[in-house]
């Protein structure tokens, strides 16, 4: 009886302390993951701004091929829709503000819509396997971006540029979005960025995403 009483007394003293200790530890881990997510969002937005500079492009006779689409696609898969819009839309806005201000609002809408749609579709299309889901989401987002830039050029430069925007610029932009999708898929899957994110920060697909083990 004495041993039982001492055991109950010991548990009554130590168990609350143990719960508080592990509760604080879990809260600390959650704060750490939130900090990592914010840091990653800021880093990806900075990368998008850097890749907006023409010095980091492939020049062609009808325009430059930019690599910011790859950054936006990767970011949109990894982070939530709001953070994706910040990376894609706000990052592109700032990049154009520093390099080509005339198109900064078009970039805000076009790349913001691209990032938002990729993030949403990569979380909603749970009936698809993960790589196909991401590929489909990137295709939808890229279509929105192409439509945004084509209409944006007509609004900025007038109706006289409509033929130029469709016949001349659209093919090079199709090539650009194709390169962006290919690079993003390469980075996310064969090179393991998605697995690293999942391991270090957590499941990138939130409550709407399928468990990776079941849909891979």
Q: Based on DSSP secondary structure assignment, what is the total number of beta strands?
A: 2
CATH class: Mainly Alpha
Q: Report the CATH topology name.
A: Arp2/3 complex 21 kDa subunit ARPC3
- Strand portion, in percent? under 5%
At CATH level 2, the architecture is: Orthogonal Bundle
Distance between the termini: 56 Å
Helix content: over 70%
Weakly predicted, low-confidence segments: 6-10, 206-216
Counted up, domains total: 1
Mean pLDDT: 80
Please explain how this structure is put together.
By secondary structure, the protein is mainly α. The chain has a single domain (24-215), classed as Arp2/3 complex 21 kDa subunit ARPC3. The protein has helices at 2-50, 68-78, 81-99, 104-124, 130-157, 162-188, 193-200, 212-215; strands at 58-60, 63-65. A two-stranded antiparallel sheet has the order 1-2. The chain is globular. 32% of the residues are buried.
């Amino acid at each position: 009886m004495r041993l039982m009483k001492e055991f109950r007394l010991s548990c009554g003293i130590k168990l609350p302390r143990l719960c508080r200790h592990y509760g604080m530890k879990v809260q600390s881990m959650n704060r750490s993951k939130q900090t990592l997510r914010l840091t990653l969002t800021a880093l990806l937005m900075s990368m998008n701004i850097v890749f907006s500079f023409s010095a980091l492009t492939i020049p062609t006779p009808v325009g430059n091929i930019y690599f910011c689409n790859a950054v936006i696609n990767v970011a949109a898969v990894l982070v939530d829709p709001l953070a994706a819009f910040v990376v894609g839309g706000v990052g592109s806005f700032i990049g154009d503000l520093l390099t080509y201000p005339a198109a900064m609002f078009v970039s805000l809408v076009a790349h913001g819509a691209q990032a938002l749609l990729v993030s949403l579709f990569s979380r909603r299309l749970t009936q698809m396997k993960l790589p196909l889901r991401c590929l489909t989401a990137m295709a939808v987002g890229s279509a929105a971006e192409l439509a945004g830039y084509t209409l944006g050029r007509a609004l900025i430069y007038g109706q006289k540029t409509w033929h130029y925007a469709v016949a001349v610029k659209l093919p090079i932009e199709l090539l650009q979005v194709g390169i962006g999708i290919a690079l993003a898929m390469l980075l996310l899957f064969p090179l393991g960025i998605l697995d690293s994110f999942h391991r270090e920060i957590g499941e990138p697909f939130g409550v709407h995403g399928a468990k990776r083990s079941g849909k891979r």
